[in-house]
Amino acid sequence: MRKVSFPYMGTSYIPIKRLLTALGNEVILPPKPNTETITLGCKFAPEFACYPFKIVLGTYVQVLEAGADTLVSTGGVGPCRAGLYTTLQEKILKSLGYKFEMITLEPPGRHFADLMCSIKKLINTRLSFRDYINIGRFVWKELTLLDKAERLSHKIRPLEAKKGETTEVYRKCVAMVAKAESYKELAEIEREMERLYDSIEKKDFDPVKIGIVGEIYVLMEPSANMEIEETLGNLGVYVERSMFLSGYTVSNAVMDLFHIAGERDIKKLAYPYFKEMCGGHGRESVGNAVHFARRGFDGLIQLSPFTCIPEIVAKSILPKVCEERGMAFLSLTLDEQTGREGVRTRLEAFVDMLFAKRKKMRLSSTKSNFVKEMS
Amino acid sequence: MAYYLGIDVGSVSTNLVIIDEEGNVEEAIYIRTQGQPIKAVQEGMKMLSFRNRKKWDIKAAGTTGSGRQLAAVIVGADVVKNEITAHAVAAQKEVPDVQTVLEIGGQDSKIIILRDGVVTDFAMNTVCAAGTGSFLDQQANRLGIPIEEFGDRALKSRNPVRIAGRCAVFAESDMIHKQQLGYKTEDIIRGLCQALVRNYLNNVGKGKEIRPKVVFQGGVAANSGMKAAFEEALGMPVYVPRYHNVMGAIGAALLAREAQVENTAFKGFGVSDMDFSADSFECHGCPNRCEVVNIKMEGKVIARWGDRCNRWKTVEGTGAA
After folding, report:
1. Confidence at residue B318, expressed as pLDDT on a 0 to 100 scale
2. A306 and B118 in contact by Cβ < 8 A?
3. First CA to last CA distance, chain A
4. Which of A280, A318, A336, B200 could pair with A310 in a Cys bridge, judged by C-beta atoms 3.0 to 4.6 Å apart?
5. Mean pLDDT of B216-220
6. Which of A350, A101, A251, A217 is nearest to B122 (CA)?
7. In 10 A of CB B147, how many CB atoms?
8. Would you call B284 an interface residue with chain A, using a CB distance cutoff of 8 Å?
C-alpha cells in the first residue's frame, strides 16, 4: 500500500486524508507546522525561498522520516515560484537521500492528461462509480462544513462575552467533523454546530470589520500567520478572509476544467488597477480589496511572505485602492519569526485606529444632524 | 494630589514617568534595558521611590513598549497599550495640532499620521532595523565617537559623503570603504544621517502624506544630525519635544489617566525590592510546542504566557487569567 502524505494547510488535512484513504492509500498525517518543521525547512531550503516553501519542505522531511513514500501536492501555472516548487522540493529531498515518489496535481484545464495520470497513481483500490459519487459527496460536505465552522467563529468571536469560548467551540466542531463516518452524521453535525455557536453568550456590540487578503498559504494556515484571525477576533474585530478551501477548490479545479477563469468577478474588480496577471494571488488580493471596500469594511490587512513577488506587486497598489475607498490599510510581512509581539503591536494599533475613526465619524455625523435640525 | 505612572519597556531603553492630574511631567527616568527588562523596571521604580519627595499617590499605572506585558505584571498596571497609540497620545499632548509623528527607537521606527486629532494611518518597519537607534549606537562606537556627540559632529560637515541606506550591512561596508579612502569622519556621519533618513522615508514613510507640524521623537530624536537631515529632506521644520526620549511612557501615563480607574492594580514602589524571575519550558501537549514563560514573584508564579491554547494561562492560587 502506498504511504501518502501532503502539505499541512489549515484544516484541509481532514478532507484530504478522507479522500486518500477512501482511494485505498495509507495516509501519513503531516504534523501541524511547529518549530521543528521550520528549522528543517530553513536548513534545507534556498535562503531566499519564501516562508511557505520552507514550511512545506520541513513538513515533507518530517513525514518522510515518519515513513511516507509518496508526496502529493498541487502544482500551478504562471509566474509565481510556487508552481515550480514541487519540482525543486523533490530535487532537494532526493539529494538528501530520501526515496519517494512526488505526485504533482496540475490544474485540469491545462494539463488534463497529466492530472489523470497522477490521480490514477493514487487510486489503489477497486471502486464502483457509485463509490466515487459517495466519496465525492462526503468529502465535499466535510470541506464546506469546515469552512462554515470557521466562518461562524470569525463572526461570533468578537461578540463573545467569555473570552476563548468561540475558539473552544470551533475546536470542538473541527474534531466532530474529523470523526464523522457517514454523510448522515455530517448533516447532524451541521445542526449541532449551529446549536453550539448559538449557545455562546454574546454581547450587544458592533465590531469593526477587517478583510484579510494575501498569499494563500500564510492566509490559510494559522501557524504561519500567528493566528491573526483569532487575535483580531479577541480584539473585538469581525474578520473575513478572502479565501476559503471550498471556494478555492471550485475556482481552481472545477472551473479550470471547463476553461473558465476562476474568481472572474474578483478579477474584474481588480481590472482598473491590475490588467495583467502577475502570478500567485496578487490580482485577487487587489480585487478582493475592492470587494471588501464595497461591502463597507473598515480596514484591510494584507499578509505576504517575505520576498513574495505577487504580493509585493499588490502591496504597491493596495494603498491607493484603500485610500480611494476610505478603507484603512495594513500590510504584514511574515517569515520565520515566532515572536508575536511585533505583529500584536501592529494589529492592536490598527484596531485602535479603526475604533477611533469610527467614533469620530459618529461624533461628526451627529454634529451635522444637529446643525441640520437647527437650520 | 493624584499622580499617574507610565512605563515604556523598549528593546534598548526602559522609561518611567510620573505625571500629575494636568499631564505635566513630574519625573522622567531613562535607563538602558540591556536585555533585562525585569531588572530595568525594578531599577526605575527604585529611582522613582528615592526621588519620592512628594510621596507619590499613584492613581493609575499604564505600560507600553515591547515589554509592556512583563512590566504590567511586575508593577500592576491598569492599562496595557501598544506603543503606536501611546506615542500618538503623547505627541498630541505636546503639540496639539501635530499631523505627523516620526518616531525612531532602539529597534524599530514608525510613522504616525494624524488628522484632526485622530490617528488615520501608521506604519512600522517590518523586516529591517537599519536606521534605528541600535545601528547608530554601533556605528558611533565603531568610530569612537560618544553617541551624545554624534549629531553635533554631523552638523560640522560641509561635504556629506553619499552612503548606501537601504540596508545596515550595505551602509556599514560603504562607510568603511569611504573611511579607508580618507574622507573626514564628520562628512561620513552626516552622509550616514542622510542615508538613514532617506531609508526611513522610502521604507516606513512610503506613500504617506507628511504634513506639518512634524514631531520627531524616540531616542534617536536626541541626535541633532538626524533632525537636520529630516528637515533638509522634508523641507519643513521638525519639532523635537522636550521629553522626546520618554514619549511612550508619557503616553502610557496619559492613557492610564484617561481610563479613570477606581481602584488601581498598582502594587506600589516596593516591587523594586521583591525578587522577580522568569523561566520557560517547551510544552509538549500538542504539536504546536509552545515556549511557555513563567513569571515568578518571590518564587511564586504570578503570570504565564506563550501558550496558544490558554492551557497554562490560569495561575494557581490567583485564579486570574
Report:
1. 45
2. no
3. 82
4. A280
5. 91
6. A350
7. 17
8. no
Using an 8 Å Cβ cutoff, are B113 and B214 in contact?
A: no
Q: Which residues sit opposite A103 in a β-bridge?
A: A72
CB atoms B82 and A306 under 8 Å: no
Nearest beta carbon to residue A333 from set B122, B126, B286: B126
Question: Which grid cell sits at A109?
Answer: 484545464
> Using an 8 Å Cβ cutoff, are B270 and B30 in contact?
no
Name residue A249's amino acid.
Answer: T
Measure the CA angle with vertex A48, ends A45 and A49; round to 5°. 55
Residues A184-243: pLDDT tens digits?
A: 999 999 999 999 999 999 988 889 999 999 998 899 898 888 889 999 998 999 999 988
Dihedral of the alpha carbons of A175, A177, A179, A185, in degrees to the nearest 10: 140
Per-residue pLDDT of A57-76, as tens digits, reads 999 999 999 999 999 988 76
Q: What is the pLDDT of residue A186?
A: 93
Task: State residue B319's pLDDT score.
Answer: 39
| CATH code for the structural domain at A207-375 | 3.40.50.11900
Do the Cβ atoms of B68 and B80 come closer than 8 Å?
Answer: yes
**All structural domains of chain B with their residue ranges:** 3-87+249-273, 96-239, 275-321
CATH class of the domain comprising A3-126: alpha beta
**Distances from the Cα of B141 to the Cα of B106, B118, B200, B252, angstroms:** 15, 39, 22, 32
Residues A341 and A148: their CA atoms lie apart, in Å, by 30
At B82, give phi and psi (nearest 5°): -70, 155
Nearest Cα neighbor of B309 from A278, A309, A164 is A164
Does the distance separating the beta carbons of B85 and A345 come in below 8 Å?
no
Question: Within 10 Å of residue A95's Cβ, how many Cβ atoms?
Answer: 9
Class of domain B3-87+249-273 (CATH, top level): alpha beta
Q: Quick one: pLDDT band at residue A254, thresholds 50, 70, 90?
A: low
Q: Give the closest-approach CA distance of A222 to chain B in angstroms.
A: 11
Residue A47, pLDDT score: 87
Residue B61 Cα, gap to closest chain A Cα (Å): 19
Cell 514573584 belongs to: B297
Alpha helices in chain B (DSSP H): 37-50, 68-75, 83-94, 133-143, 147-155, 168-180, 185-203, 224-234, 247-258
Nearest chain A Cα to B311, which residue? A164
Rounded mean pLDDT, B269-288: 83
Same fold, B3-87+249-273 and B96-239: yes
Q: How far apart are CA A16 and CA A6, in angstroms?
A: 9
Query: Residue A116: is it exposed, middle or buried by C-beta count within 10 angstroms (0-12/13-18/19+)?
Result: exposed
CB A58 within 8 A of CB A29: no
% pLDDT > 70, chain B: 95
Just give the CATH number of B96-239. Answer: 3.30.420.40
Q: Which value does ipTM take for this structure?
A: 0.78
The answer to whether B260 faces chain A, any CB pair under 8 Å, is no
* A236 closest CA partner among A340, A329, A352: A352
CA separation for the pair B84, A346 (Å, rounded):
8
What's the CA gap between A309 and A214, in Å, rounded?
A: 11
Residues B168-214 have pLDDT tens digits of 788 888 888 888 999 999 999 999 899 889 888 888 888 888 999 99
Three-class SS state of B177:
helix
Q: Which residue has the higher pLDDT, A250 or A241?
A: A241
Q: Taking CB atoms and an 8 Å limit, are B288 and A227 in contact across chains?
A: no
